[in-house]
Amino acid sequence: DIQMTQSPSSVSASVGDRVTITCRASQAISSWLAWYQQTPGKAPKLLIYAASSLQSGVPSRFSGSGSGTDFTLTINSLQPEDFATYYCQQAKSFPLTFGGGTKVEIK
Amino acid sequence: QVQLQQWGAGLLKPSETLSLTCAVYGGSFSDYHWSWIRQPPGKGLEWIGEINHSGRTKSNPSLNSRVTISVDTSKKQFSLKLSSVTAADTAVYYCASRLENWLDPWGQGTLVTVPS
Fold it and tell me: Does residue B64 surpass a pLDDT of 80?
């Protein structure tokens, strides 16, 4: 199985800040990476696919980059609705696997 | 636009079989793969397995022998059965559609509790 490691596990930030979350794959996955946002009590929501493509309807303050083993999710100008947990997921091979999550908390 | 609605029993006893169903509304049923994912309370996400419209399945080797995923194309529904549950199987279970390799959208989730 491909292991996905996210860092940090949590981050405290203020409205308007820029937040960067990283995800590392245990082997090269090209651009087969997605990012999801989960708010408490809700199902995850797809934000970014193919490492850097923005899902329809997702605000442009979210962006993704990277390929191979190292990936980044950036949230520019953090908004109140962005306080949530973010997960990366590799889609290179089965079983599909997720990172452990990064909780973005209010400072 | 695909929407998913899921249901199933929320409280089980150890050794019983978990059974959940997910109904698909909108979209073309045959275009997608249909997945199950779970999330233990306060923890991360684990992909359980998936099925396509013709019944071809893939499942996570960590659960492989206990998982059965089936599809009813006439009803546009797919189902998960997980046998011999224990407290370790307590989780919110989600259904989701997979187009290419991305999981979107997801069902609303069902909390399944197995007391120890």
Answer: no
